[in-house]
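Session log. Operator J.P. requested a structure for one protein chain; no other inputs attached. Running the standard single-chain path with token output.
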Amino acid sequence: MISKIAYLLATGQIYNPKKVLALTFSVNAAFKIKKELSENLPHLLEVENSNKFKVSDKLFVSNYHGFCRHILKTYGYLLHSNLQEIDLIKSVDDSKTEEITRIFNISYDAACVFSAYSDAIKNVNRQYLNDSFNQYTDGIIRVFLDKRHISFNGIIALTLKIFIKYPEVLQFYQDYFPVIIVDEFQDTNILSWNLLRTLVSDKSQLVFIGDSLQRIYGFIGAIPDLMIEAEQRFSMERISLENNYRFMKNPQMLQLDKNIRLNAENSFKPAIHKNADVPLILAVNQLNEAELIIQKINDLLSTDHEKTSKIAILTRGGATNRNTCKILDVFNQKNISYFYGLFNEDSPEYLEFHQKCSSLLTEQLRIEFKISQKSIKSFYSKVKEFVDINRKPTFTSLLNLLDVFLFKVLPIYSFLSIEDKLLLIRDTFDNKNLKQNMEHISEDIIVSTIHGAKGLEWDYVFMPDMEKYSMPNWHGLCGNCNYKSNCELKIESTNNKKFLEELSVFYVGVTRARKQIFFSASKERLKADGNPQQTNLSCMLGLPGITLIK
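Structure written below.
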């Protein structure tokens, strides 16, 4: 991506004052890209005085919501005067019907207009979204904005409304951004896709970068087969990146990565030429598995003479999974320090913490609109007071992540403007994205879900509970599987879609490891009621191309 942008600029394809628009799915990814561009573009462009080079002069880099906030701050007054101060407007989750009725004092049926629209985005219901667009956006303007509130979906929907209602504004941005580059394209939801399609003109140059195998956010609206849809809609050329530089010096991980991809390309008959050897820890029961995992972790840490290794335990299930809890129990019994990151993004505590942070930030900005060390410390103190009053394990972990985000991660982006810093903070809370800071915490061991770890990396990764009903789980593939007796899965037209969805989760988990992935399983699992049950190894471990080393 950086090389492509450098080429466009070096060959004079972007004339002043026009810019490249670079979009990505998450705010963290957007600012990582901006940081890399700031560090590498001056060198690639052979700029004599790099101190005078500003990325913002040539590019606009953001996630979809950051881009839309920028437009609403400039042109939002065309819809509602309060949008001129969008940074001071409180965020509301439009999927929470009861919360909407309480905040705005409207009927349950009226609130369902907003929650139904949110559900349609998650379910990729294109017809409903088109039919209900005006009802939803008019409701956001009339109900939300009048009381200085806005929803996460509303930020994009209102920007789209401006483009539709005021074509001259759309024309300006189409001319201003002749080149549009999108990273993490596979995670794009239908609302963002509608915005992107509207922004594209006949003259636009497009570069969409994505990996369909890493589309694991289908449950929150990532569009299936979007890469193919975009390719056909805009007559784009598909360019496959063949070289995997990430594992270039790690032949077994390189082979494992390749073989999983070959299973995805042709799940019925993958063209595997060489197997990858992968370590497996096989235990008699869950307690034994937990103890063996800890033993292996201790071995890895004891041989790390530089004391820099970071280790993640990534699970398919969350905090309620009894098998995962057994690992945590042993950690606690042995007084082993670890970071608890088993956040369920839909859990009340996880949502409440982010909403509280967003609300406190808005209140502070209304008093003093600036981002300084003093204001950040003041904001953190207020959040800490909230956590001290409401002591819960999830709140404590999230406060730790907030500390890392504000005082370790944010200073890395010291080159950002005040507006960009505010955008990074605001979108982290509104996008419920504090979990993306887990790789920066001080603990050597992190326990997280695979979904929560997407986009992050550690030296060593353990994927425990690689058993039937855990990976894949009942809802994913096991529930309707015809091969539960031995888990020797045969791919057929009836199960191929579910298989590919689970393969994506499996692949994301595996590729969080920089150096080595370790699988573990036990011959006996714990059922939901806590009773033990004999089980099989996960069908994922029986994929063509994988040789387990016990």
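Operator note: The chain has three domains: 1-241, 251-338+443-549, 348-440.
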